[in-house]
Amino acid sequence: MTGRIIVITGPTATGKTALGANLAKQIGGEVVSADSMQIYRRMNIGTAKPTAAEQLGVPHHMLSVAEPWEDYSVSKYVEDASKCVDDILNREKTPVIVGGTGLYIDSLIRGNEFSDKPDPMLRAEIEAEYDNAGGEAMLVKLAAFDPESAEKLHANDKKRIVRAFEVFRGTGQTISQHNRETKDLPPRYDAVKIALNFSDRQDLYNRIDTRVDTMMSAGLAQEVRGILNAGVSANTTAMQAIGYKELIGAIAGEYSFDEAVNTIKMESRRYAKRQLTWLRRDDNVQWIFYEKTPDLDWGLHVSTGYLQVL
RNA sequence: GGCGACAUAGCCAAGUGGUAAGGCAGGGGUCUGCAAAACCCCGAUUCCCCGGUUCAAAUCCGGGUGUCGCCU
What we know:
Structural class: alpha/beta
C-alpha cells in the first residue's frame, strides 16, 4: 500500500519553504523537510530553516534532528523521514516533502534500502588502498568483480570507487547489482513532485545574492561563531555547508568577510545549478516558473491545480 | 609635453620566430551511506589596430591607439 505524498522542491532560494507550509496548511497536511543541512540543530540562519512563524502552525518534521557533530547520511534520513511520512499517512493527513536535497527526496520516495552496515575500518582501508594504487589501478581491480561499475566510474571518482569496493567486500554483492535490484522495486510512495524555478536564470542568481546579504544582516557570522564556540570541528559535514565553511575562514582571519560573502554567493549559485541538473533529468517533476521574484499565490494556485489533475 | 613599461577569452595569466599553457568565472553532465558533497566534459581559426621583415610573427621592425608609471 503506497501513500500519496506531495513534494515541493527546486533550487535554493526559490521559495520552497513558504509554498510548502502554505500548501500544507491549505490541505491540512504536514511538512517533512528534505534538506541535508536543516537536519542539524544550531544551523538556522545559514540553512534558511523555517522559523516558528514561517511554519504557520503546521507541524514540521525532520528539522533540527541531529547535532552538527553527529554523522548523518541518506540512509539515516530515509529511515527517519519514512517513519514521519508513514505516521502522517496513518493519521489520514498528507505529507508535504519540502527541500532541495535531491538524493534524499528520491531515496525516500523509492524507499531505498542501504542494508549493509557501515564499517569505518573497512572504508579507511580501501581509501588507503586507493591512495597507494591510484584510480586507474583501482578501476582494474574493480573490473575483476564488478565490470559494470568499473566502466561507469571515472578514475578520479574516489568516493564511488571506494564505495563499490566497500559494498562488495562488506556484503558479497556488487553495488551495480544492488542498485539494479532496488531500481526494479516499485516506489515506496506515490509522489507528486513540484519543482520551483525562474524563467530567467539571472533572476534566480539575483535572488540568491540578496538572500545571502539578508542572512549576513540576520547574524550568520554570529551563528557560525557560536557553533565553533560550542566545540564543533570545522571539518564536519555540517560545517562544510555553504555559508559556514566560508565564514569559518573569515573568522580565522584567512580573508575578509567581504570576500567570504562573495564566495558564499558564488557557491550558492553553483549549488543551485547542480540542483537544476539533478531535477532536469527527472521526467516526473511538474515545474513552476516564476518571473523575477517568487509569487506565492501563483505557486499555490498552480500546485493545487497539479494536485487535482494528477 | 618628455621618457619608460604594458596591451593574449568575462577576469587573472604563460608563451620572446615554428603554428595559442594553466587557473578562475560561466555553461553542460554524472550521481543509490559524508550529497550545501564528490566527480566528468566544454572555451581564442587567433594574441589592440595598420603596415613591414621572414618559408614561418602573439613573438622581430616602423607607425597608430589605449592603459599604467616616472619626469618636467
